[in-house]
Amino acid sequence: MIREFVALTRRELLRLGRNPGAILTSLLLPVLYLILFGQAFNLQNLGGGRVDPAYFLAAFRGAPSYFSYFAAGMTGFVSVTATLFIGANVIFDRLFGILKRTAATPAPAASIFGARLVAGSIQPIGLAFLVLGLSVLLGRLGLSGLEITASVSPLGAVEIVLAVVVLSAMFAALFLAIGFSLEQPQSYFAVVNTINLPVLLTSAALYPWGTMPPWFQSVASFNPITLAVDVLRENLFAGARSFYPYGPEVYLLGLLAWAGAMFVVAGLLARRALAPRR
Amino acid sequence: MLESAIRVAHLSKTYNGKVRAVEDVSFSVLPGEAFGFLGPNGAGKTTTVSMLTAGLIPTSGRAVVDGVDVFRDPAAIQQRIGIVFQESTADPDLTGRENLELAAALFRVPRAESRPRIASLLDRLQIGDAAHRLVKTYSGGMRRRLELAVGIIHAPRVLFLDEPTLGLDPQGRAGFWQYVRELRKDHGMTIFVTTHYLDEADAICERLAIIDHGRLVAMGTPSELKDRLGGDVVTVWTARSDAPVAAVLSAVPGVVSVTRQEEAYRVKAPRGESLIPLLVDACTRAGIGLTGVSLKRPSLDEVFLEFTGREFREDEGATATDRAVRIGQVREAFGRGRR
Ligand SMILES: Nc1ncnc2c1ncn2[C@@H]1O[C@H](COP(=O)(O)OP(=O)(O)OP(=O)(O)O)[C@@H](O)[C@H]1O
Ligand SMILES: [Mg+2]
What we know:
Chain A is mainly alpha-helical and 278 residues long. In chain A, 73% of the residues lie in helices and 0% in strands. Chain A has helices at 2-17, 20-40, 53-59, 66-81, 84-95, 98-103, 109-140, 154-181, 185-201, 214-222, 224-236, 248-274. In chain A, helix 2 packs across helix 7, helix 4 (66-81) packs antiparallel against helix 7 and helix 5 (84-95) packs antiparallel against helix 9 (185-201). Chain B is α/β, with parallel strands linked by helices. Chain B has 3 domains: 6-225, Rossmann fold (3-Layer(aba) Sandwich), CATH 3.40.50.300; 231-296, Alpha-Beta Plaits; 300-334, no CATH class. Chain B is 39% helix and 25% strand. Chain B has 13 helices and 14 strands. In chain B, helix 3 packs antiparallel against helix 4 (111-124) and helix 3 runs parallel beside helix 5. The interface between A and B is medium-sized, with 27 and 32 residues. Bound molecules: adenosine-5'-triphosphate and magnesium ion.
């Protein structure tokens, strides 16, 4: 089990490393969002200074600026955009016969699925922390940037890392589930495009919380991206806790529930795809 | 010691409830035997291989490979067998060596064994120089050789080869089979091979089965199968004459059949070489002038066409009943009386 898992993970990482183009492309989206969208979209400038800053503080749930609020949200955003392709890899591996070859070995399905899950989560996790780092750097350069106004406790840091890791793995599992259940690349992209926008647009990754209608807030609060980025926001911004009904550990638990369910579903679909055909 | 390395009983596969790809196939392969599985395109060879290698669940029937029921314990089967698929399955984004290392890990070959084995496989199959290149840069023949190496990395007890030499040049094929022969000699490996190169099947396999439209139509050693065609073909060319040549030739003891093609008469008989003097004698006595005589032993190609044939039927002069009788005999010989 372990040896197979390690060998298959190595295979995924070798392939990833041999495709620097894909890595650069995945960098493009968050970087453009931070240096273009984030710089231009300064919501707190609305009202030309006549609006009470406390209003914005509430709208951004304790974040000192829209950029700070949005930078935390972007970490969730990249967990989707950087895991998208791993399900497509399953489809192409099937077309190339690689999946058949792997399924013809005694390697347990769990190791085949697990290797793709772990390897597929590495890139989004890396990107999420890159987003945070770049956002802080932009602020230091005098541009709009992420201001971390709270002093993050060790526990808080652990929660942040967990939130990023679990969210990435959850989406990796989601896209693997789709990849293991479909055979044609075009059906994969059709399904993924149908899922992506609703998932991203029902989250609180980009919208200021305070401007959403209540019904939307209820929907958004169950979205896994919201759960993860709120763990970040509660920990990064001083006084943020007073704007949230629950502490970050509650959101983390919700996120774990999502991820657990997704692992089970995706694992079963992968096992079915690797079993002898009927 | 097991009685048979592969035992198949009444195996059938119907795809999607309509395509009857394999129908009621039964046979056994002895341990250490090389068994050829021949048949035209779409006959059901790959379907059979998939079922014997736990890749495809049969509609009905049973298969036992190396003493293990294939569908009771797929993982145990997979550990014991090697497969070279009809199509390429190596990872194009890995090097040849990385593909082999991955396969060794997935079959849990101890590292102390896998290292020298990979080195020797790369060397023997002449991939050595390309081992560090990505497989996507390989030529078709190099890929094929790598497929074989991947298929035997764990020293399987039974090796399934589905058209393994497709697209290899003659040297490549010779080298490939040379290596397979050594594997058999050194490890007593059982070989189950499908191929369209009948000369290969003739040279490698102790026994053959011919499948057509999903059903076994013949089985036996290559020479048994050739004998069933009625033996050798002696072609006799005569000078133009009104003499009843066919009748004269048919009257010679040992002749199975005579068919005419213009001035040439094809005489079928076992042991054609000893028949030639008798044929010449008979013609001389009947006053028929001969212009030439040739002897041809049937090749496996002719056996193949005979049992699955869609062509050369008139040429062979075999009527439909002729053929049905012969197939009936084959079936009887193997204790199956259906069609
Ligand atoms: N997945 C499938 N679904 C439906 N029909 C199939 C499937 N796979 C094979 N068949 C059909 O089953 C029959 C046998 O196919 P198979 O691949 O076993 O033939 P084969 O003897 O290996 O032929 P070839 O020499 O061309 O490789 C064919 O009629 C084929 O069209
Ligand atoms: Mg085939």
